[in-house]
Amino acid sequence: MAPSIIAESPATEVVVPVKADPGKNETKSNYPNYLPTWDDDEKYPPLEPFTHVEHGKDADPSFKDLLVEGSKIQKLTPTIGSEVTGVQLSKLTPAGKDQLALLVAQRKVVAFRDQDFADLPIQEALDFGGYFGRHHIHPTSGSPEGYPEIHLVHRNNNAWKYDE
After folding, report:
1. 25-58 tens-digit pLDDT
2. In the chain, what is the straight-line distance between the N-terminal and C-terminal CA atoms, in Å?
3. Disulfide engineering: 107 pairs with which of 39, 43, 82, 146, CB 3.0-4.6 Å?
4. What is the side-by-side strand order in the sheet with 110-112?
5. How far apart, in Å, are the Cα atoms of 31 and each of 94, 118, 123, 130, 146?
6. What is the pLDDT of residue 155?
7. Residue 41: per-residue pLDDT
8. C-alpha torsion angle, residues 91, 93, 94, 97 (rounded to 10)
9. What average pLDDT does the segment 112-123 reach?
10. Sequence spans of domains, the chain
11. Which residues neighbour 37 within 8 Å (Cβ) at sequence distance 6 or greater?
12. Cβ pair 37, 142 in contact under 8 A
C-alpha cells in the first residue's frame, strides 16, 4: 500500500478580517477599503442571459499596444502559460485590452506581477474587469462594502510558511 500524501498538521488559528469601525480608523490592513463585509439580508437578482463581446477576435496579433517597450513575455511551456513583466494592466488603452484578451485566448494562463489594482479606487478595478465581460456576484463571500462584485481571496499573515 502506498503511503498517504496527507500529513497530519497541527491546527492553526484562522483570522478573518472584519471591517474596521470607520470612526476609529484602527485597521492594520494595507488596503482597508478592500476588507470584506457581510450583509445576511442582501438579496441579488437571478442571473439573466447576456451578450458577450469577444474583444480579442479583432486584436492586433503583434501586441504592440500590450507589450510596450521594456516589457518581456516568457512562455512557461510551449503551448500554455506565460509570464509578462513590464506591463501595468490598469494603464492599457482599449487596443491594449483587446490584445490582452487575444494573448489570454492564445496562451490560456497569463501572469502579470506587480499590478496596482489594489491601490486604485475599487470602481476603477471593476471598470477594467468589466471591459472583458459582466461581473459575477459570489453571494456567500464577503466583499468590500458597496461592491458585491469583488470576490476576495484572503490569506492571513501566518500563511507565508507555505511559500517555501
Report:
1. 555 778 888 888 888 888 888 888 999 999 999 9
2. 29
3. 82
4. 72-75, 82-85, 110-112
5. 27, 7, 14, 21, 15
6. 63
7. 84
8. -50
9. 93
10. 53-163
11. 19, 142, 143, 144, 145
12. yes
Q: Where does the pLDDT of residue 122 fall: very low under 50, low under 70, confident under 90, or very high at 90 and above? A: very high
Judge contact between 36 and 129, C-beta under 8 A: no
Check the CA dihedral 128-130-132-136 and report its sign. Answer: positive
Euclidean distance between CA atoms 155 and 149, whole angstroms = 19
Residue whose cell numbers read 513590464: 86
pLDDT of 81-111, one tens digit each?
999 999 999 999 999 999 999 999 999 999 9
The hierarchical CATH code for the domain 53-163 is: 3.60.130.10
